[in-house]
Specification:
It catalyses: L-tyrosyl-[protein] + ATP = O-phospho-L-tyrosyl-[protein] + ADP + H(+). The protein has 484 residues and is of the alpha/beta class. It is built from 19 helices and 12 strands. It has 3 domains: 60 residues, no CATH class; 125 residues, EIF_2_alpha (Alpha-Beta Plaits, 2-Layer Sandwich), CATH 3.30.70; 280 residues, P-loop containing nucleotide triphosphate hydrolases (Rossmann fold, 3-Layer(aba) Sandwich), CATH 3.40.50.300.
């Protein structure tokens, strides 16, 4: 994975880093607060030898350094710890004293330092004082010759014993810095790991790669769509409405030599916004002057009637069963040249009904009576209804929701269409998280319109509505005539 992709994953999953950092700082603060203060008592020894007995200075220095290493082990020995406990009332066992002692030496010198760490400041000083006295006494005893004369080694205390006036641990500043560093490292690792294992669609490029089809549109996420799903009224000037119009333009020019007049709109899963987009695409096409017929072919979970506010009690199901003529159930929506064929009652066999000869004949009739037929179908992975309808259309439009649909699911939907030779016109990324800069640019451009220009557009819109209404009336009459 290259560095650019890692930075994108970190930016996308920034909240993981923030949460991990806060947890790390919280744990660090809790440990720091609950930790007992510890004090450090130290003493420094100097190991030397008289000039007599060692004539070579260099050999004498090596000899002393080897001795210092031995004394370092002696300071932490069981014998010395037991001697300190026996001679002093410290309230500690020999093992506890031994665990509190640490030693250190400076390379190339004959200085030896012993340190004692304890939660009690007074006791730490007492232990190091007793340790210092017993250590010097023990070394002198060991180094004394058999005749009672001093040996070649002399050890002196040149520093301490002393105890730190303030605790050496915990160190809040150091702990916070370490906790921050560990939190950032852990959070970054988790963010990259989550990004590598996340199979959901995150951008338009991934959707193009998975489907192998052109991207015809990116519909931005609009919180207002929950209460106002259609691009009419105040929503007609939103960025979402402009994205639908861009989709309309791209769809009309996706193949100029063989334009699709009957388009099946489908998705991999339910809840990806295909029905809403079908309605809005039909509205946008009607606004451009096309005679549009919107067919609700999702016979299991009909939504078109609810969004457009049309009666869905009688519709496509009744037409396919031969109970009514299509011209009797088609409804004109609003003042635009848009007709709607609702779903009707839910049949017991939707797949068989949609794949029947009656459906094929109906689509031929609708093709002759409208410029463009938009068919809202069922999700591809849930049932086979969507594939059955898409086979009879001129092409299919695949809708996928950003951040919800997994790439394998989209790939499976594309394969389902390809398996029956359905022409995939393109894909649409729905509820896309677009950069705020793009939304600001569109809003600034929209608000920059002058009042006279806005008035002119309003007058042109009213004229278009009158023309659209007349076309819609003729559209219904023609559809009724062809259906009979």
């Amino acid at each position: 994975m290259d560095l650019v992709r890692q930075l994108r994953l970190v930016r996308r999953n920034w909240w993981i880093i923030l949460v991990t950092l806060m947890v790390s700082l919280g744990v660090t603060a809790l440990v720091t607060v609950r930790a007992q203060p510890r004090y450090l008592a130290t003493v420094t020894f100097f190991v030397t030898t008289p000039s007599q007995g060692v004539t070579d200075a260099y050999q004498g220095s090596l000899f002393l350094q080897q001795r210092v290493k031995s004394y370092e082990e002696l300071l932490t020995s069981d014998r010395l710890a037991q001697s300190v406990v026996t001679d002093n009332q410290l309230g500690l066992t020999a093992e506890q004293v031994q665990r509190r002692i640490t030693t250190s030496t400076e390379t190339g010198t004959v200085l030896l330092q012993a340190s004692v760490t304890d939660t009690d400041q007074t006791r730490a000083l007492r232990v190091v004082e007793a340790l210092s006295a017993r250590f010097v006494e023990l070394v002198n005893k060991v180094e004394t010759r058999l005749d009672g004369t001093p040996g070649p080694i002399k050890i002196e205390v040149i520093g301490g014993p002393r105890v730190s006036p303030s605790p050496v641990s915990p160190q809040p500043v150091r702990n916070i810095l370490i906790g921050t560093l560990l939190g950032l490292l852990a959070g970054t690792g988790l963010a990259i790991l989550r990004g590598m294992t996340d199979v959901r669609l995150r951008d338009a490029a991934a959707l193009r790669r998975v489907t192998g089809s052109p991207l015809l549109g990116e519909i931005p996420l609009d919180p207002a769509a929950r209460t106002a799903p259609l691009i009419v009224g105040a929503a007609a000037t939103s960025a979402r409405a402009e994205a639908v119009r861009k989709l309309r333009t791209n769809l009309r020019f996706v193949d100029a030599h063989e334009p699709a007049r009957v388009i099946a709109v489908t998705s991999a899963l339910q809840g990806e916004g295909k029905s809403t987009l079908s309605c809005n695409l039909a509205i946008a096409l009607a606004e451009a002057g096309w005679r549009v017929l919107l067919v609700d072919a999702d016979l299991r979970r009909s939504k078109v009637g609810d969004y457009l506010g049309v009666d869905s009690a009688v519709g496509l199901t009744d037409v396919l069963l031969g109970d009514v003529h299509v011209g009797d159930v088609v409804q004109r929506w609003g003042d635009k040249s848009l007709l709607v064929l609702p779903s009707g009652a839910t049949p017991p066999n939707p797949s068989e009904l949609l794949g029947s000869k009656a459906m094929a004949d109906l689509l031929l009739t609708l093709r002759e009576s409208a410029d463009i037929v938009i068919i809202d179908t069922a999700p591809l992975l849930a049932v086979t209804d969507g594939v059955v309808v898409a086979v009879q259309a001129d092409g299919a439009l695949l809708i996928s929701q950003q951040g919800r649909t997994a790439r394998p699911q989209v790939a499976a939907a594309a394969r389902a269409l390809d398996a029956v030779s359905v022409r995939l016109l393109g894909c649409v990324l729905n509820m896309a998280r677009t950069p705020k800069s793009e939304a600001y640019q569109y809003e600034a451009y929209r608000l920059a319109a002058t009042p006279p220009a806005a008035a002119s557009r309003a007058a042109a819109g009213r004229h278009a509505e009158r023309v659209g209404a007349n076309d819609a009336v003729e559209h219904v009459e023609e559809l009724s005539r062809l259906s009979r």
